[in-house]
User: Fold Slipin family protein from Microbulbifer okhotskensis.
Amino acid sequence: MKPLIKIWKIVDVADSERALLFRRNRFERVLPPGRHRISLLSGDVRAETYDITDVVFDVIKAKFLLNTYGEILSEYLQSYELSDHQVGLFYRDNHLVDILPPGTFRAVWKGGESVRVEIVDISEEYAINKNVLGLLGRGVRAGQIRTAVQAISYNEIPDEHIGLLMINGKLEKMLQPGCYGYWKYNRSIAVKLLDLRLQTIDVSGQEILTKDRVSLRINLSGTYEISDPKKVALKLSDCNGFIYRELQLHLREAVGTQTLDSLLADKDRLNIVIATGIRDKLAAYGIEIASVGVKDIILPGDMKMILNQVVEAQKESEANLIKRREETQAMRSLHNTAKLMDNNPVLLRLKELEALERVSTRIDKISVYGGLDGVLNDLVKLRPTA
Assistant:
């Protein structure tokens, strides 16, 4: 008994699906939802089924099929093609879900969701619309869009800062505080951030020889602010490094022209010399120096010991001088007192009684001979008896 020849093929297409029917590997038509009985008499058939809830018709031959069978497929598929100077914002049900790079071809199924592609010309204008930037720059949407990070340059300029927009290595404009976004396709974009607030820089541990060849270690601190951001951006690659080197050089120059004693006696003079010398140099590069101050002057161990000995000797000499001055003053006072008592018997007698009082306070027991008059007149005498 001969086997039955199969002359029909049944293809079931769900409501959320569409099928492309191929006969002898040539596209024939689109099968809508439902059950289809396909004749096999004209040759073998093949049905490729696609889920239209995925929206994107992501097939390598999509562009070929639409260009060749556009009249048939236009009822089911919508296509978008971008030039080399265009970017596409891909929306599904009015939600931004993807960014289409320049030169992209994308085909989408009709009938599933509301789909649109907003095309942006970036040949001249590369700034991103504020509303779109709010979705791409941060928040949930930025995490969902795969190409957002690669597609845009997102920059936040905080208060008291300024941004320098560089396009293909050229300074285009200055950006005030705020949020900015730019398309990175077809160009190199960079934003350099400059802090306009008062800043501090420290020059630490500088080993320097004074004019009298004493080695010191000095710590210097300075404060500055950027007065001309454009000059700083165009003329300096490392603003902090430049200021550090200038402070270092001027510190060495100022210390090398002074002796150790003059440095220790007047540190403010050193600050003034450094600030005066560096101010004009920094101003030429758009930087204003606010203040310069020496924080520490550290001596080596042996020099510190020698200075301590010098100070100790000076203080000891001063103490001896004061002691001798006081002794001289005391002797002069005693001499004047003696002259007064010599010419005044009553004052002499009062001094004798004062001495008697002092003696009596130190004696526990006194034996009196000759009566109280003997004690008062004979016990203490400051003038010899004639």
Summary: Residues 1-53 form one domain. The CA atoms of residues 80 and 106 lie 5 Å apart.
